[in-house]
Amino acid sequence: DADVTQTPRNRITKTGKRIMLECSQTKGHDRMYWYRQDPGLGLQLIYYSFDVKDINKGEISDGYSVSRQAQAKFSLSLESAIPNQTALYFCATSEGDREAYEQYFGPGTRLTVT
Amino acid sequence: DAKTTQPNSMESNEEEPVHLPCNHSTISGTDYIHWYRQLPSQGPEYVIHGLTSNVNNRMASLAIAEDRKSSTLILHRATLRDAAVYYCILRRPFNKFYFGSGTKLNVKP
Questions:
Q1: CA of B1, closest CA in chain A: separation in Å?
Q2: For burial by CB atoms within 10 Å, which of A9, A18, B65, B97 has the most?
Q3: How high is the pLDDT of residue A101?
Q4: A42 with B94: Cβ contact below 8 A
Q5: Which of A40, A102, A107 has its CB closest to that of B43?
Q6: B9 by DSSP, 3-state: which?
Q7: Which long-range contacts (C-beta less than 8 Å, at least 24 apart) are formed by A22-27?
Q8: Quick one: average pLDDT of A82-106?
Q9: How much is the average pLDDT of B37-42?
Q10: Is residue B29 over pLDDT 70?
Q11: B48, B95, B101, B104: which to substitute to probe chain A, counting the most A Cβ within 10 Å?
Q12: DSSP for chain A?
């Protein structure tokens, strides 16, 4: 089974709708992240969480919110989706108490806002 | 923000070594240099990281300039499965990663 899972894998929604993307991990990591990727571009950090009580904005948090329901779960919400939020969204995790560690990425959620 | 500069694309022949360059002239003393790659239709995956010294692992080698303002990811024998976008990233303290646009590596048979 995958260590980092994302649901749904694909979603098409209409402008103005509220949508939630979910991420779960079985790695036991404290730190979780949400990124978006636009076609042909790198990843941009939306939000990150160092533990259940610590949530921080990334580079492009406007229009997004997050919830860290448990150590293993980190959800990303679009309160009122707009077309330019059409992108590929990745969740990632990493260990929290070591100096320089890798991030483990989920398979991504492809979101289309019409 | 810690920025890196990479060529947009590179091409290599299968079974030959590949050197992927990265410039990071604004690197600070506490920044680690990480490399990730993203295969088509997948999330990024870790390749290697280092601070000051050159590093080797089963996937690749990382050569870091003495002034740390540039680094090179070395794939010793490129295979078709190495075709991907390679990201050079500076990891700031508290584990934040900033991805750039990366280098798309094309491997020719």
A1: 10
A2: B97
A3: 76
A4: no
A5: A107
A6: strand
A7: A22/A73, A22/A75, A23/A73, A23/A74, A23/A75, A23/A76, A23/A91, A23/A106, A24/A72, A24/A73, A25/A72, A25/A73, A25/A91, A25/A93, A25/A104, A26/A1, A26/A72, A27/A3, A27/A93, A27/A104
A8: 86
A9: 90
A10: yes
A11: B95
A12: --SEEEE-SEEEE-TT--EEEEEEESS--SEEEEEEE-TTS-EEEEEEEEETTEEEE-TT-TTEEEEEEETTEEEEEESS--GGG-EEEEEEEE-SSSSS---EE---EEEEE-
pLDDT at A113: 97
Interface touch B98/A45, C-beta < 8 Å? yes
Q: Which residues of A fall within a CB distance of 8 Å from B90?
A: none
Residue B82's φ and ψ, nearest 5 degrees, are: -85, -5
pLDDT over 90 (residue A59): no
Residue A90's closest chain B neighbor by CA?
Answer: B43
On whether any CB of chain B is under 8 Å from the CB of A21, the answer is: no
Percent residues over pLDDT 90 in chain A: 79
